[in-house]
C-alpha cells in the first residue's frame, strides 16, 4: 500500500484486476481490520456521482477480490480474510502481511521506545518504518480516486512520522539510511517548510553541510516562484544553524536569482453577508454547533482545525443559520472572515470552481493579482500558507460535494470552516472529520416565532387558528413561511384567515409559494436540486409523488418504479444525499409536504397517464400481495380465500418468510396500508381496495384498531359496489359488521352482517356464511343472548363440516365452548374445548390450539381446578410466544392472573397483569384501559394476599 498497490501469494505477484477493483482492494487494505460501510465504498470509488449499478458493481468486485486472495476457500467460509461486517466488508490482515500495518507497528514501537528513554533505538525503528515507503499511497488506482482523503490521510501519516523520525534522530545518533529517506519525503513535499528545515539539520549533523545549504536555497526559490513568499521563521532558523554568523557561507554557483519576494501585507477581510434581521429559532442547533468552537479561539492558543458541515433540503434555512452563527462568533476570530457562495445549485449552472474561489480569497488576503499562482495546487498552497498561524472564520456556502470544497479548507489550527450544502458531504465527514448537522423543519414553536418576527406579536396573537393553519400548510419550512409572511406583511389590512384560506385552496401545488424572485420561489428553488439528478433518480423522484404516504419502503419504491431492489437502493440514496427525501428509519423514506407537491407537479407534467397508471398498479400489487403473505403467515387457517389476480412481474412483493417478520411488516406499514385502500379506490383500482381491506381485518382487529377498521371497510364496501362485485360486497359487509359490533354499534352491525349472509347464501359461499354466522354469534354473546349465539354457531358448524373445513370446525367448537362458559355450563365447555384442541392439533394449527387451550383454562378456573387452568394457560402462552401473537399472549396472561388471584397469590397475579398491561400499552390496544383499572384496585391493597381469594 505504501506506494504502488501490489499483492503476492507464495512469492507470486497477483494481477489485481481492473482499476475500480484495484481501488476497492486498496480501500479495504487501508482500513484493514475495520468494517468499511457499503456507502463509504461507493463514495470512494465514484465520489458524488455513483451510477445506479454502483452497489452491484461493488458486490462483483468483492467476489473477485475474495477469489483473488483466497482461491481455495469457499465464499463465507470460516476463517476467510474478507468478510461481511456492519453493512459493508472487512479485510483482516496482520502486520507481517501488510506494509501499512507493519509501518504502524514499527512507528508505535518507536514512540514507546523514545518514551522509555532510548532515542537511538527509537530513531532506528522510525527509519525501518519509513524504509517501507515506495511512493504516494495507492499508486496505480485511478487518478480521480487516489487523492481521496482515505488515501491522502495515509500520506499525511507518513509525513508526520518522517518529521517525528527527524526530531528523534536529532536528539540522538542519526541512523545511516535516515537522511536518504528524508530526502525522498522532502522531494514529495517541497513546500512543507518544517520537513525541509528538519532535513537541513539532519544533513548538517551528518556532515553534509553543502547538501543542507542546497536544500535551503531550493526551498527558498520554490516558495518565491510558486507562492510568492519568503521562507518562514522555522526554515530561516535551520539555515542560520548551518551558517553561523561568524562563518561565511560557502560560495554557490553563479546563476540568475529569482526576483526578491516582497512580503504580502497582512489584511483582515470581513466578508460575511449581513445577518438576517428576522432570523429566529434553531435554538437547539445553535447550542449544538457552539460546542464545535475551538477552545483556544478566545485565549489565542492554537486550537484544532474544525469544520462544520450543515446540510438539508432546499429552503430549510442552511445559509441563514450559518450566517447568523458566523456573526455571533466572528469576534473570536480576530484575523477576519472569508465568505464564498460556491453556487453549487445555481439555476443558471454557473457554479463557482475552487480555482475561482481561491483567487478571490487570495485577493481578499492582500495578494496582488500579478502574484496569484496559476495552478489550483499552487493557489491552495499559498492560501494555506497565508492562513498558517492565523485565526480566521471561513464560510463556504452552497457547496455541491466534498471535492468542491477540499481545496478551500485551511491546513493549520486556529481556523473554523462552516460549509453548507443541499447534499450530505460524506466524503468531508469521513476524510476531514467534519462535524455534520442536518437541518429539518422548524418546530411549531419556532415557526410561530418566525411569523411573530415578520408580522408582529399583535397580528399573530389575534388569529391563533389561522396561524396554526399557515404553519401546518407551510410544512414548517423557513422559505415557505418567509414567502407567506412577506405577502401578509404587504397586505396589513388582510386578516390572516384569508392567507390561510388561500393556502388551503392551493394545497397540493406550489402556487401559494411562487414569486418573482427565483431565490424565494419554492418551485424554482426546488428545481435547482432536481436538475442535478441523473435521469433515473429524477424519474423515481417524480413517481414517488404517486405514493399515498406517509412513508415509503425501498421495496415499495422499487415496485412503483418497476426497478430491481439494488438499483432502487442506489437511487434512493442519491435522492437522500440531495435532501429530496429523508431516510427517517433504515429503508424507510419520507417527503417534505412541499417537495411532494413539487414532485406531483413534475409527474403530472412529464409523465403520461399510462405511465402513472402502470406505476400505481405495480404499487398496489406490491401492498396487496405482501399483505396477503403476511396475513397468511400470521393465521394460515383463518385467511379468507379471495380471488386475487397475480402480481405484475415488475412489481416486487416482499418475501417475509416468518411470522415475526410478517407481524413487523404489518406494524411498520399499517398507516401506509390504510392510505393505500383509499388511494386504490380513488384511482381506479377498486378490486385492490376491497381485497386489501378484507386482508387486513384480522391484524387490525387483534390490535384493537377498530375505528381504522370501520373506516377502511366502508371504503372497501364502496369500491365493491362501484364494481358491482357481489362477493366483494359480501366480504366487506361482513368485516364492517364485525367492526361495528366491536364498537358497540349493534344496529349497524346486524344490518351489515345480515346483508352479508344474504349475499354469501346467494353466491353459495359456505365459508362466507359460516364466518358471518360466527360474527352474529359474537354479537349475541356481547349482548348476553347466549342461547341465540348457540343458534348461530350450529349452522356455522354444519357449513364447515359440509365443506370439510377442519380449522373452521375447530374454531366454532372452541367458540361454542366459550359460550357455555358464559352460560355457566363449565363441563359442557370442557367437552367442546377439548374437541377444539384435538382438531387444531391434528391439522397443525398452533394458534387455534392455543386459543382453545385458553378457553379450556378459563373453564377449569370456574370449576375451581386451578392447577389444570394454569397448565392450560402455560401451554397457550408458550405457543403465543413462539408465533409472536402478542395480543393473545396478553389476553391469556390476564386470565392466568385471575387464576393466580383465585389461588390467593396476589403478587404473582399482579406480575401477570402488569406484563399483560405492558403488551397492550405497547400495542396501544383499548383493552389496556380495562386492565389498568383492574390493577388499580389491587396496587395499594392493604390486606394479606390470602384474604383476597374470595
In short:
Keywords: DNA-binding, TPR repeat, Transcription, Transcription regulation, Two-component regulatory system. The protein is mainly α. The protein contains 42 helices and 13 strands.
List the helices and strands and how they pair.
Layout: E1 8-9, E2 12-13, H1 19-30, E3 36-37, H2 38-46, H3 54-69, E4 82-85, E5 88-91, H4 99-115, H5 119-130, H6 149-170, H7 178-188, H8 193-205, H9 209-227, H10 233-242, H11 283-290, E6 306-311, H12 318-329, E7 337-341, H13 354-364, H14 376-387, E8 393-399, H15 402-405, E9 416-421, H16 426-432, E10 435-438, H17 444-455, H18 457-462, H19 464-473, H20 478-489, H21 496-505, H22 522-530, H23 535-544, E11 552-553, H24 554-561, H25 565-577, E12 582-585, E13 588-590, H26 593-606, H27 609-634, H28 659-682, H29 686-695, H30 697-702, H31 706-723, H32 726-742, H33 746-763, H34 766-782, H35 786-802, H36 806-822, H37 826-843, H38 846-862, H39 866-882, H40 886-902, H41 906-922, H42 927-938
Helix pairs in contact: 1-3, 4-5, 5-6, 6-7, 6-8, 7-8, 8-9, 8-10, 9-10, 13-14, 17-19, 17-20, 19-21, 23-25, 23-26, 24-25, 24-27, 27-28, 27-29, 28-29, 28-31, 29-31, 29-32, 31-32, 32-33, 32-34, 33-34, 34-35, 34-36, 35-36, 36-37, 36-38, 37-38, 38-39, 38-40, 39-40, 40-41, 41-42
Strand order of the largest sheet: 7-8-9-6-10
Quote the distance from N terminus to C terminus.
80 Å
CATH structural class of the domain at 1-189: Mainly Alpha
Shape: elongated
How big is the Rg?
37 Å
CATH superfamily of the domain at 1-189: Winged helix-like DNA-binding domain superfamily/Winged helix DNA-binding domain
Amino acid at each position: 500500500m505504501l506506494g504502488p498497490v501490489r499483492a503476492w501469494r507464495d512469492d507470486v505477484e497477483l494481477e489485481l484486476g481492473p482499476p475500480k477493483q484495484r481501488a476497492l482492494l486498496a480501500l479495504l487494505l487501508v482500513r484493514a481490520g475495520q468494517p468499511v460501510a457499503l456507502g463509504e465504498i461507493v463514495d470512494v470509488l465514484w465520489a458524488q456521482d455513483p451510477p445506479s449499478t454502483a452497489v452491484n458493481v461493488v458486490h462483483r468486485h468483492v467476489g473477485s477480490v475474495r477469489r483473488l486472495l483466497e482461491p481455495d476457500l469457499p465464499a463465507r467460509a470460516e476463517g476467510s480474510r474478507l468478510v461481511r461486517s456492519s453493512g459493508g466488508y472487512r479485510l483482516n490482515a496482520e502486520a507481517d502481511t501488510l506494509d501499512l500495518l507493519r509501518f504502524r507497528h514499527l512507528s508505535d514501537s518507536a514512540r514507546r521506545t523514545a518514551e522509555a528513554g532510548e532515542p537511538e533505538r527509537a530513531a532506528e525503528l522510525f527509519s525501518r518504518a519509513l524504509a517501507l515507503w515506495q511512493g504516494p499511497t495507492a499508486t496505480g488506482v485511478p487518478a480521480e480516486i487516489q487523492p481521496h482523503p482515505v488515501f491522502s490521510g495515509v500520506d499525511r501519516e507518513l509525513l508526520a512520522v518522517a518529521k517525528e523520525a527527524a526530531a528523534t534522530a536529532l536528539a540522538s545518533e542519526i541512523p545511516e539510511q535516515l537522511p536518504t529517506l528524508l530526502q525522498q519525503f522532502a522531494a514529495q513535499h517541497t513546500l512543507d517548510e518544517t520537513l525541509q528545515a528538519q532535513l537541513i539539520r539532519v544533513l548538517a549533523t551528518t556532515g553534509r553541510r553543502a547538501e543542507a545549504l542546497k536544500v535551503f536555497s531550493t526551498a527558498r526559490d520554490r516558495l518565491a516562484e510558486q507562492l510568492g513568499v519568503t521562507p518562514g521563521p522555522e526554515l530561516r532558523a535551520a539555515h542560520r544553524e548551518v551558517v553561523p554568523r561568524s562563518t561565511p557561507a560557502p560560495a554557490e554557483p553563479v546563476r540568475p536569482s529569482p526576483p526578491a519576494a516582497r512580503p504580502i501585507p497582512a489584511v483582515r477581510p470581513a466578508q460575511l453577508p449581513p445577518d438576517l434581521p428576522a432570523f429566529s429559532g434553531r435554538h437547539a442547533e445553535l447550542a449544538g454547533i457552539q460546542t464545535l468552537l475551538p477552545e483556544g479561539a478566545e485565549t489565542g492558543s492554537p486550537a484544532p482545525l474544525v469544520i462544520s458541515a450543515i446540510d438539508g433540503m432546499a429552503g430549510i434555512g442552511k445559509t441563514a443559520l450559518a450566517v447568523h452563527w458566523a456573526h455571533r462568533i466572528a469576534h473570536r476570530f480576530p484575523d477576519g472572515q472569508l465568505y464564498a457562495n460556491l453556487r453549487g445549485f445555481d439555476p443558471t449552472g454557473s457554479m463557482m470552481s475552487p480555482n475561482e474561489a481561491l483567487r478571490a480569497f487570495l485577493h481578499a488576503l492582500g495578494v496582488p493579482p500579478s502574484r496569484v499562482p496559476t495552478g489550483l495546487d499552487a493557489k491552495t498552497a499559498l492560501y494555506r500558507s497565508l492562513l498558517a498561524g492565523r485565526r480566521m472564520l471561513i464560510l463556504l456556502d452552497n457547496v455541491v460535494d466534498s471535492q468542491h470544497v477540499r481545496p478551500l479548507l485551511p491546513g493549520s489550527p486556529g481556523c473554523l470552516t462552516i460549509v453548507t450544502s443541499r447534499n450530505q458531504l460524506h466524503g468531508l465527514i469521513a476524510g476531514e472529520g467534519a462535524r455534520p448537522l442536518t437541518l429539518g423543519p422548524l418546530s411549531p414553536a419556532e415557526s410561530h416565532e418566525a411569523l411573530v418576527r415578520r408580522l408582529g406579536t399583535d397580528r399573530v396573537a389575534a388569529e391563533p387558528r389561522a396561524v396554526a393553519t399557515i404553519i401546518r400548510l407551510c410544512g414548517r419550512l423557513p422559505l415557505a413561511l418567509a414567502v407567506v409572511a412577506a405577502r401578509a406583511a404587504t397586505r396589513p389590512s388582510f386578516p390572516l384567515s384569508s392567507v390561510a384560506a388561500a393556502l388551503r385552496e392551493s394545497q397540493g401545488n406550489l402556487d401559494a409559494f411562487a414569486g418573482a424572485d427565483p431565490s424565494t420561489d419554492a418551485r424554482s428553488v426546488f428545481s435547482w436540486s432536481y436538475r442535478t439528478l441523473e435521469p433515473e433518480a429524477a424519474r423515481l423522484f417524480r413517481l414517488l409523488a404517486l405514493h399515498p404516504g406517509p412513508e415509503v419502503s425501498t421495496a415499495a419504491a422499487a415496485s412503483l418504479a418497476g426497478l430491481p431492489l439494488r438499483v432502487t437502493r442506489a437511487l434512493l440514496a442519491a435522492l437522500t444525499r440531495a435532501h429530496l427525501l429523508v431516510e427517517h428509519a433504515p429503508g424507510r423514506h419520507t417527503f417534505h409536504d412541499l417537495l411532494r407537491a413539487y414532485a406531483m407537479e413534475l409527474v403530472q407534467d412529464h409523465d403520461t397517464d399510462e405511465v402513472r397508471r402502470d406505476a400505481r398498479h405495480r404499487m398496489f400489487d406490491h401492498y396487496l400481495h405482501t399483505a396477503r403473505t403476511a396475513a397468511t403467515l400470521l393465521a394460515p387457517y383463518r385467511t379468507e380465500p379471495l380471488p386475487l389476480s397475480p402480481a405484475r412481474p415488475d412489481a416486487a412483493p416482499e418475501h417475509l418468510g416468518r411470522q415475526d417478520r410478517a407481524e413487523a411488516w404489518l406494524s411498520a406499514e399499517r398507516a401506509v396500508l390504510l392510505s393505500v385502500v383509499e388511494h386504490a379506490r380513488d384511482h381506479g383500482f377498486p378490486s385492490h381496495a376491497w381485497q386489501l381491506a378484507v386482508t387486513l381485518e384480522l391484524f387490525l382487529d387483534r390490535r384493537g384498531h377498530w375505528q381504522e377498521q370501520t373506516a377502511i371497510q366502508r371504503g372497501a364496501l364502496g369500491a365493491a359496489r362501484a364494481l358491482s362485485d357481489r362477493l366483494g360486497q359480501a366480504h366487506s359487509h361482513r368485516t364492517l359488521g364485525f367492526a361495528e359490533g366491536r364498537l358497540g354499534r349493534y344496529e349497524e352491525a346486524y344490518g351489515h352482517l345480515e346483508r352479508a349472509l344474504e349475499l354469501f347464501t346467494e353466491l353459495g359461499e359456505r365459508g362466507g356464511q359460516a364466518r358471518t354466522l360466527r360474527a352474529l354469534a359474537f354479537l349475541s354473546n356481547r349482548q348476553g343472548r347466549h342461547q341465540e349465539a348457540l343458534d348461530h354457531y350450529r349452522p356455522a358448524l354444519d357449513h364447515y363440516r359440509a365443506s370439510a373445513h377442519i380449522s373452521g370446525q375447530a374454531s366454532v367448537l372452541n367458540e361454542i365452548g366459550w359460550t357455555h362458559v358464559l352460560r355457566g355450563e363449565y363441563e359442557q365447555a370442557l367437552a367442546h374445548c377439548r374437541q377444539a384442541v384435538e382438531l387444531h392439533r391434528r391439522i397443525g394449527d398452533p394458534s387455534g390450539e392455543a386459543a382453545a387451550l385458553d378457553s379450556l383454562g378459563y373453564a377449569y378456573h370456574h370449576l375451581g381446578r386451578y392447577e389444570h387452568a394454569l397448565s392450560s394457560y402455560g401451554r397457550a402462552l408458550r405457543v403465543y410466544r413462539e408465533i409472536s401473537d402478542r395480543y393473545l399472549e396478553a389476553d391469556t396472561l390476564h386470565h392466568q392472573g385471575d387464576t393466580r388471584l383465585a389461588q390467593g397469590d396476589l403478587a404473582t397475579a399482579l406480575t401477570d397483569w402488569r406484563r399483560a398491561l405492558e403488551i397492550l400499552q405497547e400495542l396501544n390496544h383499548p383493552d389496556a384501559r380495562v386492565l389498568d383499572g383492574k390493577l388499580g384496585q389491587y396496587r395499594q391493597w392493604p390486606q394479606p394476599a390470602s384474604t383476597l381469594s374470595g
